[in-house]
Structure to design on (365 residues):
């Protein structure tokens, strides 16, 4: 199964040789994400966004990342990453490698150092969205035993700098748009849980990640061949393996 | 939290199996789920092949596919949470207090900072 999406490119995600054929809506969402990543965002060009995907993939074979993962503390190991393209500042390369290979051991000091080294906080949020979207797509490719998609085709264009002026400190590392209420709904979660606000400093980042993610998981309902308990067990088990607090 | 809710509805799930794979979850195919998720997240090709073949027999091909789809999605969204350090929603914190101690609480961002990057 394959899908092309977008009028300015023939960006294709191809699951034709997958062990299990994914739903058409998921394939279309992945194709749309790949096209979006190839376009300029708020703070990164299309070339840089594609480079973030390349660095995320390179991290899987990076000797520094491997040594850090094996260490009791990743911060005890210095060195240089085995880079992919050279199109990114070192802070973005560090983010792509660490977020891909060791997300459960990121710390506030690490985050603060990226900003102190010159990374704009909006650029950080956008990069997280691009890398996490790429992780979703690449993980499914590996799981379904198909070759990774070719890198997104970078389109010309400049970043538009768009961020949400209402975002503020809400207790996360990054500013988030406030919500009216955190009272639980029928799902026992707030109408807008914090995970939905995590990237809200950069509207494009929210759109990219959640359009990629939504075909993977429905909070209620969903057309699954496994039970709701099994869906939630899988989700919780992944969170535990990744040492995710949230 | 939603697993806890499912557990309350079915009365048959040991949520401790989420953080301790040596425990039986109580789910019919819990061992297969654990094995599939581990292989999917690790990217270990051989482990994935073995896990899929075993699970296909016990479950079905489309069920295995759906496990992998959910796992792939959460392999991304956990990175969004970890990279932004979003706090727990109040209702989640209150509803899962007992469930989270001690393993999940050890994933707290402040606890990680002390453990991995004291300064």
């Amino acid at each position: 199964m394959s899908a092309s999406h977008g009028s300015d490119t023939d960006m294709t995600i191809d699951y034709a040789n997958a062990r299990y054929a994914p739903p058409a809506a998921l394939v279309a969402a992945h194709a749309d994400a790949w096209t979006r990543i190839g376009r300029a965002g708020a703070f990164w060009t299309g070339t840089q966004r594609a480079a973030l995907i390349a660095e995320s993939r390179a991290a899987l074979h990076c000797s520094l990342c491997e040594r850090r993962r094996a260490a009791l503390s990743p911060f005890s190991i210095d060195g240089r990453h085995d880079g992919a393209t050279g199109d990114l500042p070192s802070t973005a390369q560090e983010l792509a490698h660490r977020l891909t290979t060791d997300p459960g051991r990121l710390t506030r000091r690490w985050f603060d150092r990226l900003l102190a080294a010159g990374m704009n906080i909006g650029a950080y949020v956008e990069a997280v969205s691009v890398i996490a979207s790429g992780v979703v797509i690449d993980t499914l490719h590996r799981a379904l035993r198909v070759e990774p998609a070719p890198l997104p085709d970078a389109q010309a264009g400049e970043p538009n700098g768009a961020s949400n002026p209402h975002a503020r400190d809400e207790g996360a590392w990054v500013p988030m748009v406030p919500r009216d209420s955190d009272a639980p709904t029928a799902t026992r979660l707030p109408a807008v849980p914090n995970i939905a606000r995590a990237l809200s400093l950069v509207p494009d980042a929210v759109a990219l990640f959640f359009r990629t993610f939504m075909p993977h998981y429905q909070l209620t309902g969903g057309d699954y061949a496994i039970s709701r308990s099994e869906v939630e067990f899988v989700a919780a088990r992944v969170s535990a393996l990744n040492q995710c607090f949230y | 939290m939603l697993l806890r809710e499912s557990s309350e509805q079915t009365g048959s799930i040991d949520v401790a199996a989420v953080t301790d794979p040596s425990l039986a979850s109580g789910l019919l195919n819990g061992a297969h789920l654990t094995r599939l998720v581990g292989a999917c997240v690790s990217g270990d090709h051989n482990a994935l092949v073995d896990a899929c073949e075993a699970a296909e027999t016990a479950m079905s091909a489309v069920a295995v596919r759906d496990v992998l789809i959910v796992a792939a999605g959460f392999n991304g969204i956990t990175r969004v949470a970890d990279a932004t350090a979003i706090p727990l929603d109040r209702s989640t914190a209150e509803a899962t207090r007992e469930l989270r101690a001690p393993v999940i609480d050890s994933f707290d961002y402040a606890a990680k900072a002390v453990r991995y990057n004291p300064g």
The mean pLDDT of chain B is 86.
